[in-house]
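Step 1: inspect the first sequence and its tokens.
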Amino acid sequence: MADGNANLEGPHDTKADINRQGWFSKRKRWIVAGVVAGLIIVGLAVGLGVGLTSRDSSSTTASSNTRSDGSPESTTTAGNSSSSGSLWQPAVGVKWQIVLQAPINETEIDVPVYDIDLFDSTASIIAWAQGQGRKVICYFSAGSYEDWRPDAASFKPEDYGNGLEGWEGEYWLNTSSPNARNIMLTRLDQAAKKGCDGVDPDNIDGYENASGLDLTMDTAVDFVTFLADATHARNMSFGLKNGAKIVNRVLDLIQWNVVEECVQYDECGDYKPVIDAGKPVFLIEYPTTDEKPSYVSDEKKDEICNNAGTPRGFSTVLKNLNLDEWIVQCPTLTS
């Protein structure tokens, strides 16, 4: 697809100002793992079927409880547990767009899937996009504390460690903190209330960085399992962010994988299991360091879009570092 300069916003909606220039979903390899969720169907009775209604029509809701030790757990009332078959599962190769630093509006290019910022998007704008036949994924940072977010005051100093290198006002999160987990449950409640079809939690790779915290692969596995279970309990789909090293461990927990720069770092083959499982890989490549590029050369586009190391079926987009509306769509390679 040709370059797209778009603004996707409902007719009467505006977006809050971004508090930091140059903010974008940074490429961080994060380990997500989970316990393979199994569906057990018992006691089939004549005339009774097992099913789940949509969020809008469900008579039961997910709730967030706290254990006696203060740590949160996500629970559901009877009849509202979600099975993998009840969740939205996008198809391999589906076209998509990610816009984290610009409002979306009627002139945006027509793709079936949008990834937009949870905080900067209103329920009405999400409903408007869905009314155009689109599915909406809501982005938030689950593994970092960002001091400009509206819920920043809810975090405690002991909830976070060192700053993310190069990102002023952002700090690695202690993902085992009961308080931090409760904040994430509140964010998931917000996503469900706004009507998000799924979530895109970022920055779960603190164990690979100088976080100043006791973050390990095991704590990452535990945290993402917690997030995925809580997301599914709210009848929303859940995506892995990067995480090549643990892809095979989380395939049954995720509905897609958002990946950054696997062509750049020659890692795309690591994500083939996602495609083989019938789930899309949403790939972002940053072909230029320009914040506002006007074009990408045919040579650069061909280098990325037709990369021999990229498995067939990836949904690849070329974006600028700001992750605004500018986009170049790669054709989905099927053979």
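Step 2: inspect the second sequence and its tokens, then contrast the two.
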Amino acid sequence: MHLVAQVIHGKQDGPVMFVSGAIHGDEIIGVEIIRRLAEVKALEKLKGTLILVPVVNAYGFVTQSRYLPDRRDLNRSFPGTQRGSMAAQLAHTFMQEVVKPSSIGIDLHSAAVHRDNLPQIRADLGNEEVEAMATAFGTSVMLDARLRDGSLRAEAQALGCDILLYEAGEALRFDETAIRIGVRGILNVMRQRGMLPRTKTQKPPAKPLRSGQSHWERAPISGIMRAYVSLGDYVEEGALLGVVSGPLGEEETEVRARTEGLMIGRTNLPIVNRGDALFHIAETAKKAAAAHDALEKAVEVDPLFDGEEIV
């Protein structure tokens, strides 16, 4: 079992950090984030070691699939075994060669096909070191997300590796703002952990809003959905999020928010079946929406990205 990685050693000792992308093969945004990260001139002043693995699930990547050829989810297969399924062997190799030597990790993800995620950090915020990293990353919202059995995050943390999961954008798509937030966030964490010098001119990132709970609003009936809200919107309890109806507008049924919160994910498909997940709401404060708007403007003008844009 083989992995393609780039290892950058600094001239001085320091932490070992890995950054991984495409554990789900169709979540390609992490590949572009890592490509840009590898070209940042600030890495010339690196202390410690940076391990970059842009495509963990190469099998899913080349077939534009979330899963491995045997339909297993790699992110439910950790820590893996030396002998077993393809997923088990790949997970084992990644744990032994990448995670085990590392004290810090950032795993890059996007939403599934036909869904979109607001840039967000998911982490065990009960861990003080991890919470400090999540705050330094600088997204507008961070979720206190439970550790799932078999996930990279759970198994890395069990080995003492402080790890964040960055979620942004849609599978099989690049999102320029989400890419920029990802690159800048990783550099922020590297500065916070002493791997890079802090810049004199850079303002400290605004403290993200913390959410301990989120939920999906689901389709009450099958039909055609018209959405009235966008990612990053703040919604009040009872707010109208969209309506589902037949093709001629018959049997129109409203979809309303059960709680107030920030819109952190949504479906992009107008044709829905009863029970489909439509809108993902993080139960957090109203000012999170304003914080995300400010973050988008900041990465638009950041000189770090001069000449870098996907259109």
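Step 3: confirm your contrast with the notes below.
The longest helix spans residues 176-192. DSSP finds seven helices and 16 strands in the chain.
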